[in-house]
Design brief:
Layout: H1 8-40, H2 44-81, H3 84-111, H4 113-117, H5 124-137, H6 140-156, H7 161-183, H8 193-218, H9 234-265, H10 270-286, H11 288-306, H12 310-348, H13 353-384, H14 392-414, H15 420-428, H16 430-442
Helix pairs in contact: 1-7, 1-10, 1-11, 2-3, 2-5, 2-6, 2-9, 2-10, 2-11, 3-6, 5-8, 6-8, 7-8, 9-14, 10-12, 10-13, 11-12, 11-13, 12-13, 13-15, 13-16, 14-15
């Protein structure tokens, strides 16, 4: 029987990989919270507009995260083998496809902002504000794609601190410029939501400059050169899509799911839109540890599978699950007991009390579902997918999203005219239901699959 690991070195390794990622996410979401708080002083329409415009960024993030995850699964296993040449080729594949996605989203958002935004909301005032923001912030999309792929390339070789440092710089730049440009300080004009967009653009430029210097000048592990980004290995391209396509499609599906959720909430009125903007931002900040652990576990699982040490993989799996549950309980309690204090800031900014009350109800729902999120999300994507079974998560998400989540929320919102909190609970119910699937799947261990090619391993 596989036992839980008691060696402190294991948990130290997990913490060393996960905490910098969690810190990076916390800093990144702090930028979102700062945006949220500052824009909220401009009124509910401005806050709703920025939130709806950022749904395009959310969809892009899911696509790029899918590419990054597909890249990470193969890259971590080759890193376990010590085959950095193949790893560099995998990075180039992720780089080329993510850039294409970023340029496409930028063009669509710049030339057709109102048409794109109308997919998410039918509120004319919200669309107008969102368009102002979107036509500037869309230029950050290709920059985000470049930066993300380069950060993930460092994460694949167990250098997870880089993203944290870069996000800290982005936080400082973004918050400072938000204050100056939104409110018109230091002799600058008050630009409102356009100021927030410009601040985001400048911070993305700063991120890209820093990560480019780190990866191509200072890194001594991967030793990536600019020319390597344009030299994908044909066999690895085949593997990337064979094993990575389910991952990419899964994250694309999740992005579509989030877009559909936004479209449902976007038709419940400005108060509901503003409330979900607040709740989502708070949730993202207070669950960073769960997502950091998922990524840390993914690197460790992929590396262990790459060494063909099945016994070690099983020990990792048992131990990871215990950590995931404990972290989920911690995150849920943190959301529940801090919700009133956080909402006080929005209330003092003049936010309507109806919006505040709806946001409070949403946060109570999230305090429960976050426990499930921390376990099932980390178990399925941090262990099962990283271990080589890249199709299961896709199939599981298809079933839950299209057969449970969206139909139940649609019926609640538009047939039964249920209050926003019921609709929101329907949108998040899968986070608990998936736990039952995750427990069974993870502990079967039929997901352990080495995806690396032996014929490439001679070239380091």
């Amino acid at each position: 029987m596989t036992k839980i690991i008691r060696d402190r070195a294991f948990y130290g390794k997990l913490a060393a990989l996960s905490l910098p990622i969690a810190a990076q996410n916390l800093i990144t979401f702090s930028v979102g919270l700062a945006d949220n708080l500052m824009v909220s002083t401009l009124g509910e329409t401005s806050l709703s507009g920025v939130y709806m415009a950022n749904q395009i960024m959310t969809l892009l993030q899911m696509l790029v995260l899918g590419l990054s995850a597909a890249m990470s699964i193969l890259a971590a296993q080759y890193w376990g083998k010590g085959d950095t040449k193949s790893l560099r080729s995998i990075v180039s594949i992720g780089f080329l496809f993510s850039i294409f996605v970023g340029i496409f989203f930028c063009a669509a958002s710049f030339f057709f902002p109102e048409q794109v935004l109308s997919l998410f909301t039918n509120e004319p005032a919200v669309i107008e504000k969102a368009s102002e923001y979107l036509q500037i912030v869309c230029f950050t999309y290709p920059l985000f794609c470049l930066t993300n792929i380069l950060i993930v390339s460092m994460r694949c070789v167990e250098n997870t601190r880089i993203g944290m440092y870069i996000s800290f710089v982005a936080l400082a730049v973004n918050v400072s410029l938000n204050y100056v440009l939104i409110f018109g300080k230091l002799s600058f004009p008050a630009l409102g939501v356009r100021g927030a967009a410009i601040a985001t653009l400048v911070s993305r430029i700063a991120e890209l400059i820093i990560i480019t210097l780190i990866v191509f000048v200072f890194d001594k592990r991967l030793k990536l050169r600019p020319t390597d980004l344009f030299k994908p290995n044909k066999l690895l391209v085949k593997d990337f899509f064979k094993y990575g396509l389910p991952v990419i499609l899964g994250d694309m599906l999740w992005g579509v799911n989030l877009a559909c959720q936004s479209a449902i909430v976007g038709r419940l009125g400005e108060s509901a839109i503003s409330a979900v903007s607040i709740a989502s931002t708070v949730f993202s900040m207070l669950t960073v540890l769960a997502y950091g652990l998922r990524d840390g576990a993914s690197v460790m699982t992929g590396k262990a599978v790459g060494t063909n040490n099945v016994t070690l993989v099983k020990q990792y799996t048992k131990s990871f699950q215990l950590v995931f549950v404990l972290v989920g309980l911690f995150c849920g309690a943190l959301i529940f007991f801090s919700k009133d204090l956080i909402l006080l800031f929005y209330s003092r900014n003049g936010m309507d009390q109806t919006t505040i009350e709806i946001a409070r109800q949403f946060l109570i729902v999230l305090s429960v579902t976050s426990i499930g999120t921390a376990y099932q999300m980390a178990a399925l994507t941090g262990i099962v997918r990283a271990g080589g079974d890249t199709k299961f998560v896709l199939i599981n998400d298809i079933i839950f999203v299209w057969c449970v989540v969206l139909p139940s929320a649609f019926l609640a919102a538009f047939v039964f005219n249920a209050p926003p909190v019921i609709v929101f609970a329907c949108l998040k119910c899968d986070q608990i239901l998936k736990c039952f699937v995750a427990i069974v799947k993870v502990n079967k261990f039929n997901w352990i699959k080495n995806l690396t090619r032996e014929e490439l391993s001679s070239s380091k």
